Amino acid sequence: MNILQNSRQHVLSQIQQACEISGRGVESVELLAVSKTHPSEVLRDMYACGQRAFGENYLQEALQKIEALQDLEIEWHFIGHVQRNKTKHLAEKFAWVHGVDRLIIAERLSAQRLIMQPPLNLCLQVNIDAQDSKDGCQPSEVAELVKSISQLPNIKLRGLMVIPAPNNTQAFKAAKVLFDQVKELHVHPENWDTLSMGMSGDMVDAIAAGSTMVRVGTALFGARDYSQH
Ligand SMILES: *Cc1c(COP(=O)(O)O)cnc(C)c1O
């Protein structure tokens, strides 16, 4: 077994164990492979291990990889900060965008999604533990945003995304409470099924709190080299 196969199996078994401890089915948690800074050949190798969903943070880098890997059936997720003037590429090239925290961004993504494409899957990013440096809307804004964004035509609003400070288990629990509370405000509540939380260091706690999608980079690909950024 190669290194990527090994690390992926290890992460999948951690997910499985966390699900068992919480009495959840293993299919209730999806693994998103966070591949920022890693070259497209590495993604191709990870794909060969069975991975289909990949998450990227930097638009230019992501667009190059999407181009280089267009022969593969990858589901591309954008998990970085969304800038207002960059929405067109996101709307056209990605299946999911996790970092939406304002109505104007969602409106632009809806308007720029191409007619022949399926609706763009969105998660609303919430600054769940009041960090100054973080993107994300305030918890108090979530209800209004869910009402508005879930009405947009070319958007499928799937749930919430949070990035709490390390070891803030309480923040995961707060995100789950908020996630459950606002479901009824959604115009199509059946689409509200995704709680995107948990990374390499805290995915087990995130799953225990109710995460349905863990975003894992380092534990799959090893340490990142940011010298190109
Ligand atoms: C980089 C990144 C991750 C992955 O972090 P690891 O600690 O390497 O697993 C997850 N989510 C977001 C939003 C990221 O930017």
Automatic annotation (TrEMBL):
Provide the alphabetized UniProt keywords: Pyridoxal phosphate
Instruction: Tell me if Nucleotidyltransferase is a UniProt keyword of this record.
Output: no
Q: Where is the Alanine racemase N-terminal domain?
A: 28-224
- List the molecular function annotations (GO) for this entry: pyridoxal phosphate binding
For the modification N6-(pyridoxal phosphate)lysine, the affected residues are K36
- Which PROSITE patterns is this protein grouped with? UPF0001
Q: Does the keyword ATP-binding apply?
A: no
Q: Which cofactor does it need?
A: pyridoxal 5'-phosphate
Q: What family name appears in the similarity comment? A: Belongs to the pyridoxal phosphate-binding protein YggS/PROSC family.
The record describes the protein's role as: Pyridoxal 5'-phosphate (PLP)-binding protein, which is involved in PLP homeostasis.
Q: What is the name of this protein? A: Pyridoxal phosphate homeostasis protein
Organism lineage string: Bacteria, Pseudomonadati, Pseudomonadota, Gammaproteobacteria, Moraxellales
